[in-house]
Amino acid sequence: MLMGGKNVTGKEKIYAVIIIAVFCLIIVTGVGNFRAKQLAVDLAGQRVSNTLTLAVADFDNEKLQELIQTQNQQNAYYGELRAKLMQLKTEHQLENIYMLYKDEQNKVWFFVVDARAEDDPAHLALGQLENNASSAVENTLKGKVVQGEYHTTSLGTFVSSYQEVKDAGGKTYAVLAGDIDVKNVTEFLYLTRYVQFGIMAVSLLLIGLIVYLSGRKNIN
Fold first, then answer.
1. Residues paired with 7 in a beta bridge
2. pTM listed for this prediction
3. CATH code at 10?
4. According to the model, what pLDDT value does residue 188 have?
């Protein structure tokens, strides 16, 4: 067969097909990895959101608002709230669940509750100021709920979601947030990649088999 003025043999055609096939497999795998990461982050964000929804549904708004106003850790509801959030954190394998309140008068955010153990160096006490509240927290307070935020902090890399905490009149007065460690997300990514590598290996074996059979046919 002539191609560009050059006679191309059947074997060369097969090699060209192999190169194109391998190139396509690499491209498909790359795109697949990107989509797999997006899917994993979305699934993790949804898991956190579902946990926060369960938590908010169980809040006693009257007691919670009193706790926010007094900022008294001896308040019985503070211990009850922490216990419930710690249980949800453990059951749903989250890194942390915490609540932030914005003092509109002084334009500052402070922590209301944190589900980490009190002896954890990263534990955030009631009334502790948050000087670097993220845009996700600000947006959630304004009704633009954020789900599946992939971000890195001094404590590690997390996927986080945020939930509005509303009073009886439907006004948002606090933000509940939850984090899941990205290591839990990468487990899903590794599984996805193993499947992709398996598909690549099978595809290459099939291509090799085709080349082998074509070679035998040419010999005969």
1. 2
2. 0.70
3. 3.30.450.20
4. 56
